[in-house]
Amino acid sequence: MKPTLFLLAAGMGSRYGGLKQLDGLGPHGETIMDYSIYDAIEAGFGKLVFVIRRDFEDDFRRIILSKYENKIPCELVFQSIDALPEGCTVPEGRTKIWGTNHAVLMGASVIKEPFAVINCDDFYDRDAYYVMARFLTSLPEGSQGRYAMVGFRVGNTLSERGTVSRGVCTTDAQHQLTSVVERTKIERHEDAVQYLDGETWHTIADDTPVSMNFWGFTPDYFAHSEAYFREFLADEANRANPKSEYFIPLAVDKLISSGKATCEVLDTTSKWFGVTYAEDRPSVVEKLAALHKAGVYPEQMF
To answer: Distance of CA 213 to CAs 31, 130, 152, 155, 157, Å?
Structure first.
């Protein structure tokens, strides 16, 4: 069975100043999602599932979904603040939706096969889709607790505009994830990649794997994740904090620590880039135009 690609598209992109998911950055108005989906189809994914907010459903169907529906099966699911497990309630005064892993839970009713999760506003590059598709399609039927993460080489994820935050990964001899440490200030100093810890800069190898929120799961992940989300919602500190969020690494870390799952870190040669701030847009437009000019992408993708 071909794996599914689950695209997280519910964020507003407030720092960017608009809906990044609908921004035409390519030379013919392509969105970053267009490149993600083109690469995923080339790699062997067989279905698309998008999670969005209902308030931009009409624009999403008109601008985005209409391009793909005749090329590959598509599903649309919705993230909302009150989409909670039975018996759970929204804390008084809460207006913020619950984060990336809550978004993933919205796919439980339509995904019954191994699947990958990506951000819609990140350009992951084609090799990342190939390595994830190979992992997911090679799993024996009925596999459980066999997860993966594309481990981008940190040197391929840096910004030209200053420091970046990355989840720096450590693995065991079998390439299984053992820990992810968030480093909030990483940049290249001359020929070395370094991160700031306190007042000291530490050097790490260019090929050190980092997480860019490109995950692969077997369908049992939904049940585990819902159980942990119930625990998250029952925690008074999380309920009292109007900005608390349920992120994918929280659940993955608990599952690894408890021995319920493994998470293989998949090496890739892909070079990531994305639009975090409006000032990033011209650089992304230039890079995408260069890829078309080089023949990596055709003039008409869909």
So the answer is: 19, 16, 10, 16, 12
When pLDDT is cut at 50, 70 and 90, the band that residue 159 belongs to is confident
> Around Cβ 167, how many Cβ atoms within 10 Å?
17
User: 0.85 exceeded by the pTM?
Assistant: yes
Return the SS3 of 88.
coil
* Residue 262 binned pLDDT confidence (cut-offs 50, 70, 90): very high
Of 162-166, 200-204, 288-292, where does mean pLDDT reach its minimum? 162-166
How many Cβ atoms from other residues are within 10 Å of residue 112's Cβ? 11
Determine the distance from the C-alpha atom of residue 195 to the mean position of all C-alpha atoms in its chain, rounded to a whole number. Answer: 23
2: three-class secondary structure by DSSP: coil
Q: Going from the N-terminus, what domains does the chain have, and what CATH number goes with each?
A: 4-144+213-257+270-293 (3.90.550.10)
Q: Which stretches of the chain are DSSP H helices?
A: 32-43, 57-60, 66-68, 100-105, 126-137, 221-234, 236-240, 248-257, 281-293
Q: Residue 227 CA to chain centroid, in angstroms?
A: 21
